[in-house]
Amino acid sequence: MNPPDDLNLAEPINLTGTFVGYGRVSTREQNLDRQDIALTKAGCIRVFFDKLSGKNTDRPELAACLDYLRPGDTLVVLSLDRLGRSLQDLITIVAELRRRGVGFRSLHEALDTTTPGGRLVFHVFAALAEFIRELIVEGTKEGLAAARARGQQLGRPRAMDAETIARARRLLTQPEETVSSIAKLLGVSRATLYRHIPELQPGGLLQVTPASGPA
Q: Does the keyword Metal-binding apply (predicted)?
């Protein structure tokens, strides 16, 4: 895989030296003090915090943080898992920051995209994310082919077996996948996915918006 074009952009020459922090905890019971202290110690002039699951696509404080950043600034997080919902999500966010001329640092992993070494690591991450997705898709196709060879009826079955449900859940962790694309790949309807994966129901853990069209 070729890394996103934005990861190849040169780092802005005139870094402002302004650090802006972002932190997140999964539940309201968790304490943000450790992240706050670390980010402040790292020199952040302002820190934004979300208190919600990393799988939640609606992260208002992250949106506010990204809007606050200006070219030459650097976004700082305590660790990579505080920023991205998945590896692909992390790559997407960092690529957008680079497009805007904003640097990125992760304290725990000692990553810094304002350095050549940091940029190299994200090239590797981008390639790894695509490799994982291709493995999932290829495994799904092989499983379906084996099922056809055994004479199993595919298409729009009344039920999904445990193996197919597991594959669907793995694909749902990929931000670029939709309910419709996964249903098509697995040969089932969107309604079947919703019926067999409770996380997709309103109030569930997964916030995936199905594409328009008939089920």
A: no
